[in-house]
Design brief:
Strand order of the largest sheet: 2-1-3
Shape: globular
Length: about 90
């Protein structure tokens, strides 16, 4: 995370407001060698790698808010439905 990013030093409870998007969740933060599964009290720090989850329609808005192209080349998504048969 760059120090000039709108997410720099933002508490997780404020991420939606900072991005102007209601349907976004911070799924994980990598800080140095540490993987953080965040809670609302965590704060995004400079040099953090932040993993966001949103619907497809939110990607453009996040990209514009952060002022950068989103890196999706190393992204994988596993969708698994839990139903009464599992």
């Amino acid at each position: 995370m760059d120090e000039k990013s709108p997410l720099a030093n933002v508490q997780l409870t404020e991420v939606r407001e900072a991005l102007g998007l209601e349907e976004v969740v911070v799924a994980a933060i990598v800080r140095g060698e540490k993987l953080i599964i965040p809670s609302g009290t965590d704060r995004i720090a400079e040099k953090d790698i932040v993993y966001l989850v949103c619907k497809d329609k939110g990607l453009d808005k996040i990209s514009r808010s952060l002022g950068t192209a989103l890196s999706l080349e190393s992204f994988a998504l596993l969708e698994y439905l839990i139903d009464e048969h599992h």
